[in-house]
Amino acid sequence: MASKSKFQAIRGTRDLLPPETALWNHAEQTAHEVFSTFGFGEIRPPIFEPTELFARAVGGDTDIVSKEMYTFEDKAGGVPDPSYMGPADYLNEIKRAMNSGQVPDDPSVITQLELQLENYNMRSDAEKARLIWMYFVRGLRLGDSISLRPEATASVCRAYIEHNMQQQLQPVKLYYMGPMFRRERPQKGRYRQFYQIGAEVLGGGDAPAIDAEVIEMVMTFFDRLRLAGVELEINSIGHAADNCRRGYVEKLRVALEQVKVQLGADSQRRIDTNPLRVLDSKLEHEQAVIEKLPRIADHLCDECKTHYFAVKRQLELRGVIFKENWRLVRGLDYYMRTTFEITAKGLGSQNAVCGGGRYDGLVELLGGPPTKGIGFAIGEDRLILSLQESGKGPATEGRDVYIAWVGERAYATAVRAAKDLRAAGFRVELPPTELKFGKGLERADKLDSRYALILGDNEVSEGSWTLKTLADGTQQKFTEPELLEFLKRPLSRRAL
Ligand code: HAM
């Protein structure tokens, strides 16, 4: 007998279930509330975008783009299958599909196909010619390359440009929440589909007060959620000029070359590809070496130094406590000047719950006007994990009222009572089939109900309903209007 196939969520993805989802909703609701008090509006960009957008924004050499993106070809429908026709016919079909817009128009694809067709015609071994032809056409890219978003800053900048937001009052302040995708090695606090709550400020100058206010906003959000053990680290990585970061990176590279033998393979490779990322290393044996390397703070240009100093003063003005960390360089290419990261309690090695920074050149890099920008993204999975670890679990998913009904007439009244109570905002459980009172009360208890409303045919004909408080077993009789009135009273005045 064929075994039944058993489906499971793909590695690195998971189902978020009740009651945990109540905590997710609470965090998201709090973000809506806090961010709107800072004048931010919500943006919901698409979940997939052209691969090129992320390659350009995040950087082709970063781990995110070079190794972790979920990228696929957006295949046009109706493209012929090359197995069913000769090469010349196939070429004509592709030309036709490009002319009609079914396939993105790409003359280089036609040139390559024509070349292959020539080779095909010249080969004497027909079978070999066919195999080579098939191998080639199967590898052809006939669609657009698109990727699931690994982050959303690139999308927000794309939207800013696409919707001419530079013509609105600056700065434009936007926030978002939703899933992101990175093919990382899954572990506690690290998933392949994870969720971010992020915000971006675009346009409107680079006043240090903007940097400080964005940081103040995320700290206020964490404070409102009573997130435990929150620690903010900041740094400035200057800007891309010879008298600033570029000059520093060169000095760093020279210094790294001198200690190369003491470094591991990853760091050795990064000396050439991205020396700044060596500073990120968590390897025990590299720490002492890294501590002695030149520090960026000593190599910032005067403007970046002044900016960084002012950001720190602005944070102090707002009562935001921070620690400076000269090794905080971040793993995305678009950053300049202010960078920051926030850690929280109970997260193990993946303890960064938020990361962000300034990215003044990014909008321009994506084809827009010169625009200043700064923002952050919170890892929502990690935020929830930390809240849970410090005992701030979800509010109970229990019921306010369980309606224990017995009898046909009582049922009709129970349906109406459920409707009225729900309209008044109470969480109500109405059993779909009749249960003996004892069984019903057991269920009410299991569902963590506050009250059981007892409705038998007697209660209905007398118009007097019994409300049982499950915590202490006390009972009280009410008429229908009295009951609603009683339940609506604040808890403190509800003495029975
Ligand atoms: P990021 O540092 O790559 O920055 O990610 C921000 C946060 O997302 C991290 O601190 C972490 O909490 C969470 N995160 C990242 N990868 C994973 C994962 N695989 N599983 C669980 N959580 C994860 C950005 O994404 C930038 N776009 C932030 C930003 C916005 N900078 C300026 N504006």
Can you tell me about this structure?
This protein is an alpha+beta fold. It has 18 helices and 16 strands. It has helices at residues 20-37, 51-58, 63-67, 87-99, 107-122, 126-138, 153-162, 208-224, 245-258, 265-273, 287-291, 302-317, 362-365, 380-389, 408-423, 437-446, 457-462, 480-488; strands spanning 41-42, 48-50, 71-74, 144-148, 172-181, 193-202, 231-236, 323-324, 336-343, 352-358, 373-379, 401-406, 428-429, 451-456, 465-469, 475-478. The strands form 3 sheets. Strands 1-5-6-11-10-9-7-8 form an 8-stranded mixed beta sheet, sandwiched between helices. A 5-stranded mixed beta sheet has the order 13-12-14-15-16, sandwiched between helices. A 3-stranded antiparallel beta sheet has the order 2-4-3. The radius of gyration is 31 Å and the shape is globular.
Number of helices: 18
Question: What's the total number of strands?
Answer: 16
The assembly state of the depicted protein chains is single chain
Strand order of the largest sheet: 1-5-6-11-10-9-7-8
Q: Beta-strand level of the residues, as a percent range?
A: 15-25%
Radius of gyration: 31 Å
Global geometry: globular
Low-confidence stretches: none
Distance between the termini: 62 Å
Heteromolecules bound? histidyl-adenosine monophosphate
Query: What do the pLDDT scores average to?
Result: 93
Category from helices, strands and their pairing: alpha+beta
Largest sheet geometry: 8 strands, mixed
Helix content: 40-55%
